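From the pipeline queue, job 12 of 40. The input is one protein chain; the requested action is below.

Action: predict structure.
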Amino acid sequence: CAAHASNGELTVANNGLQYYEQDYIDPIARILTDYEHSGIRVVAIIEPDSLPNLITNLGDANCAQANSSGAYVSGVQYALNALHAIPNVYNYVDIAHSAWLGWSSNMGPAVNLYKSVASGTTAGVASVDGFISDTANYTPTTEPYMTATESVDGNPVDSVPYYSYDPYIDELSYDEQMYSQLVSAGFSSNIGMLIDTSRNGWGGPDRPTAACSTS
């Protein structure tokens, strides 16, 4: 419902939820059922950037409608139910990225939302096998040369506007904290955590090789 990377073509007003379930999820489930006895395991990445918008972007009219109508939650629950029913399919739900839900004011409500959504499926929290972060985003997997709280020129790293006091400046630390909170909320300690690293490379001749001595 927001952002160019994930803004969908379906709308609540145009019967989008029914279309999503019958013409999108159902065909995917039928295709994946063909692999049921093949020994091939399939990880299904469930709707990047959808549920996180219900935490931070309700000021957008489309997101507000997706929330008030229940369409996002119902759609994700439908997808989880349909795909969890296939034994060799593993559901991994998107958890945005550290620069989106890293602040405690966002992370706590997000964890509560994921628990609520999963609890409303047929299998409950067991319908979710794991979570994935940084899909279509750019955060480094690990930040090797500094931490969020270390002092540079007398100020903590995360005090600069780029971080705005976000305590998680890489995806690994963010995922570790998300894992801890999700398990505390009732998800299995066996849930998997994935990081999409397809856009966050530090390649090229100007790649840092050490920490800077000053700001």
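Job complete. The chain has a mean pLDDT of 93.
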